[in-house]
């Protein structure tokens, strides 16, 4: 992800992955419940990085749809449609947004909750 370089460091006690440093960002842990999905959407003003923490969701990015597993990482450029569908289990994932963050910068293309 442009502007996001993951840094890894080993330590005697284990180690860590550093996702951002001195960068304006918004960081979330998102839960998508079993049999649920958020809207197929895109953002004009931010890019996103996702790391799957648990679950086996179906991930849509652009025209690609893949089954993810714990540890998988994804990059979503601005203006790229994306969605997480958690069909089999609850899913938690880390989301790091870079760029101008605004919850109103969600353009919904499809939404099962009538918000599109």
Apparent shape: globular
CATH homolog superfamily: Jelly Rolls
Strand order of the largest sheet: 3-11-6-9
Largest sheet geometry: 4 strands, antiparallel
Structural class: mainly beta
- Beta-strand level of the residues, as a percent range? over 45%
Helix proportion range: under 10%
Based on CA atoms alone, the radius of gyration comes out at 15 Å
CATH fold descriptor? Jelly Rolls
What's the structural blueprint in terms of helices and strands?
Blueprint lengths: L6 E5 L2 E5 L6 E8 L3 E2 L2 E3 L3 E9 L3 E4 L2 E4 L5 E4 L5 E5 L4 E9 L7 E4 L6
Antiparallel strand pairs: 1-2, 3-11, 4-10, 5-12, 6-9, 6-11, 7-8, 7-10
What does this structure look like?
The protein is mostly beta strands. Helices cover 0% and strands 53% of the residues. It has a four-stranded antiparallel sheet, with no helix packed on it. A four-stranded antiparallel sheet has the order 4-10-7-8, with no helix packed on it. The protein has a two-stranded antiparallel ribbon with strand order 1-2.
